[in-house]
Design a protein that fits this description.
With 347 residues, the chain is α/β, with parallel strands linked by helices. It folds into two domains: 171 residues, Rossmann fold, CATH 3.40.50.1970; 155 residues, Dehydroquinate synthase-like - alpha domain (Dehydroquinate synthase-like, alpha domain, Up-down Bundle). The N and C termini lie far apart (45 Å). Bound molecules: nicotinamide-adenine-dinucleotide (NAD) and zinc ion.
Amino acid sequence: MKTVCVNASKQYEVKIGTGLLDTVGQEAAALLRGRRAVVVSDTNVAPRYLQRVLDSLHTAGFSAQSVVINAGEASKNTDTFVKLVNAFADAGLTRADAAFALGGGVVGDATGFAAACYLRGIDYIQIPTSLLAMTDSSVGGKTAVDLPSGKNLCGAFHQPSLVLCDPDTLSTLPAHFFADGMAEVIKYGVIRDAALFKTLCTKDIQTVLEDVVARCVQLKRDVVQADEFDHGVRQLLNFGHTMGHAIEQSSNFTISHGHAVAIGMVLASKAAGQAEIAEEIRVCCERYGLNTACPYDTQTLLPGCLHDKKTSGTVIQVVEPQKMGHCVTRAIPTEQLADWIMRGVEK
Ligand SMILES: NC(=O)c1ccc[n+]([C@@H]2O[C@H](COP(=O)([O-])OP(=O)(O)OC[C@H]3O[C@@H](n4cnc5c(N)ncnc54)[C@H](O)[C@@H]3O)[C@@H](O)[C@H]2O)c1
Ligand SMILES: [Zn+2]
């Protein structure tokens, strides 16, 4: 087992290891004063893993209840938020107790936001079961639900009290979602760690999964500790995302986030004049079933890029690689954005 300590506005541990699912109760008992728990999961994850988590909590002396939401992004909405806070109230959770998020980023983000608001903030424990949630969304304290007008528009910064990643759960994650997570994993290599990138290009991922998850968590931890509230270096995590978001939107969300980010990383590298890095990323992405050919032209992508959260007034922050393992953010005037995209989509 590996442990990564996060030292943000709250200190907590991220543990990564096989079999951790069965230790949730004892880990939580060591951390919490209360013995009431609500475990939130979704319709894909609950049938596979919920009972093990509930058993572990009961054995450790918790009175534990569960809420199962429909799987998928469509559930990350205000109705779910209301359902969750009501479930916490019905279970009688106090500030000494905790909510548990067992699932991917959707369950984690919605549970985290409900925990941030219920009683003005209770503890929550992340038990991520998707690769994306293990390496990205469960660490760092960004929580949210979507509004009809956009993704993640209603949320809060609220750090978890503990994160338990059991890589064994990834054996049931559908290949498409595993690939989505791999795009973010590759992103960490490009922005911060050339050795990780090389591992991803050469090794059989299944044999190094625990190490790779732990390394990504460390990298995310470093960025979050340097910039918890997203004013500076945390924006590096946005590499490939400005174009990625525009690609997701242009496809009417038929191209999923990670697959769009993979295309976006190649485009952003080309736009930065780094054709060799773009090619290295393309080859690595294809190893994991991520096709990086961009189906859209500049005029199609431009509106989506302009609506990106990273736009502030007349400038937009873009993230560009300078060499493998090292990216920088650069502010460009919005009127130069079309040229930047054009350099990316050029054959
Ligand atoms: N908070 C953050 O910092 C942050 C960062 C990145 C992404 N996100 C959010 O994360 C969400 C995406 O996360 P995701 O890709 O995990 O999506 P998800 O939660 O929808 O999970 C993907 C799919 O895999 C299923 N699944 C998860 N684990 C499984 C397992 N072990 N076995 C079988 N099926 C399993 C889920 O039911 C779902 O169908 C988005 O809402 C995004 O906005 C948040
Ligand atoms: Zn992402």
